[in-house]
Design a protein that fits this description.
By secondary structure, the protein is mainly β. It is about 5% helix and about 40% strand. The two termini are about 55 Å apart.
Length: about 425
């Protein structure tokens, strides 16, 4: 976290705001100063995390290139690791020149190589079991029938030049969550070696990372790309992008998908990012249709400090009016008052319809759909009412559409009258130009 990171470890982000998962960008500094001392505390411990030694045993815990010196069986033992782990499956452990000495070399075999992503049943691999890890001593394969608490034991009189080669196959695996985790139903994560992957908006600028399904049987390929994010293994495959059309239908189209290790996410600016990927396009939140509200300045008569006027045109479609899982704009704690929200363009636009989705948390809070509302356009600095072809709607759990004769304006305003004794808010506001010829 020191020098530009984050406290939370989000498994999904819309890349726009602070709601739900904390700030969307890595932070250059935190107000509390635990980070510098944590770094000073961690660095001296790295050696002990990588190796530990007893009277007759040397444990290799972590796989990292370098040289370690320790005392085992009353002798000084120097070992050298050669590896590109976690990108490459090969780990070579060499014994450097010192007198011969007998001890047990205990080499950790990670659970992910054995089809166990975690010790509990929270996550499980989907599909056939992976190839088994292998160990060779001086070029000769070593059979180990069982592990001792996750370690392979190699016992001998170790001489200078002895060489242990550990191969940890790294097929691309799908990971499923325990069915009790409802939010991950119908979704899979992707893992290669010890790393969990995600898809990021920076690699899918036209489709958005949150609007893609990756079928459970999708083929992935892996390749090290040295010029991306200081060098990472990237997974590439194909998925299905879902977009909402202007008439409310869903359009599904094939799309190329790139996945990066989750730990390097958000180094290319704020981005959408899911770790748990839907496998069925029917479960994907569609990319909303392009509307005139996509790039405007939003303001309001008042907004609660924890909410944001910009939430109304962020493209995140509500599941219902009581959807607390997405950003919102509310006039809370104003009750029974007359309020407004407006959007402005840098130059006039021709508009002919709008949709508005009201926030109403009946049963949980004190926000309700408004008692009434009216739409206005700005002309010569004055707000002029717009007559719709139907009455302005206040229905919950749906977009309320108002159609009208096409007009040119540089700003629209919705003026609302809140119900007596309660407040209100808006989840999404969309504006449409006239249909083409």
């Amino acid at each position: 976290m020191f020098g530009g990171d984050r406290y939370p470890n989000p498994l999904e982000s819309d890349g726009r705001n602070r709601f739900n998962h904390g700030a969307p960008e890595r932070q250059p500094w935190f107000g509390c100063f635990c980070c510098p001392v944590n770094v000073a505390r961690v660095v001296p411990q790295i050696g002990a995390w990588g190796y530990s030694a007893g009277p007759a045993r040397l444990h290799v815990h972590l796989f990292e290139a370098g040289v370690a010196t320790t005392r085992v069986a009353r002798a000084t033992v120097i070992v050298r690791q050669l590896t590109r782990y976690p990108w490459d499956r090969a780990v070579t452990i060499e014994r450097h020149p010192e007198p011969a000495v007998e001890f047990d070399l205990m080499v950790r075999v990670p659970g992910w190589t054995l089809g166990r992503p975690v010790p509990s049943d929270l996550y499980r691999h989907v599909g056939p079991p992976p190839p088994a890890p292998t160990v060779a001593l001086n070029g000769i394969a070593v059979r180990f029938q069982s592990l001792e608490r996750g370690y392979a034991r190699l016992s001998k009189v170790w001489k200078p030049g002895d060489r242990v080669e550990l191969h940890l196959p790294m097929p691309i695996r799908r990971v499923a969550c325990h069915p009790a985790v409802a939010d991950n139903a119908g979704r899979l994560a992707v893992e290669r070696g010890p790393l969990v992957y995600c898809i990021e908006g920076a690699d899918h600028p036209d489709r958005g990372a949150l609007h893609i399904a990756v079928p459970a049987d999708a083929d992935w390929s892996a390749a090290f790309e040295p010029d991306l994010l200081n060098g990472v293994v990237v997974l590439r495959g194909r998925g299905l992008a879902v977009r909402e059309t202007g008439d409310g239908r869903r359009e599904v189209s094939p799309v190329k998908v790139a996945a990066i290790p989750c730990h390097v996410w958000c180094h290319r600016g704020p981005n959408e990012m899911p770790v748990w990927m839907p496998t069925d396009p029917a479960h994907v939140r569609p990319l909303p249709p392009s509307t005139l509200a996509s790039e405007v300045k939003i303001s309001a008569s008042f907004c609660h400090p924890n909410d944001s006027p910009d939430a109304v045109n962020d493209g995140r479609l509500p599941k219902r009016s009581n959807d607390h899982g997405i950003p919102r704009m509310t006039w809370w704690n104003h009750r029974g008052t007359a309020e407004w929200i407006q959007m402005e363009w840098p130059s006039p636009r021709t508009v002919a319809a709008m949709d508005i989705y009201w926030f109403d948390d009946t049963g949980r809070g004190q926000c309700r759909v408004p008692a009434s509302w009216q739409l206005f356009r700005r002309a010569d600095g004055r707000w002029i009412p717009i007559e719709g072809r139907s009455a302005p709607g206040v229905a919950p759990d749906t977009f309320n559409r108002l159609e009208f004769e096409p007009i040119a304006t540089d700003a629209l305003r919705v003026e609302v009258q809140l119900q007596p004794g309660v407040s209100g808010g808006v989840l999404e506001w969309r504006v449409f130009s006239p249909p083409g010829p």
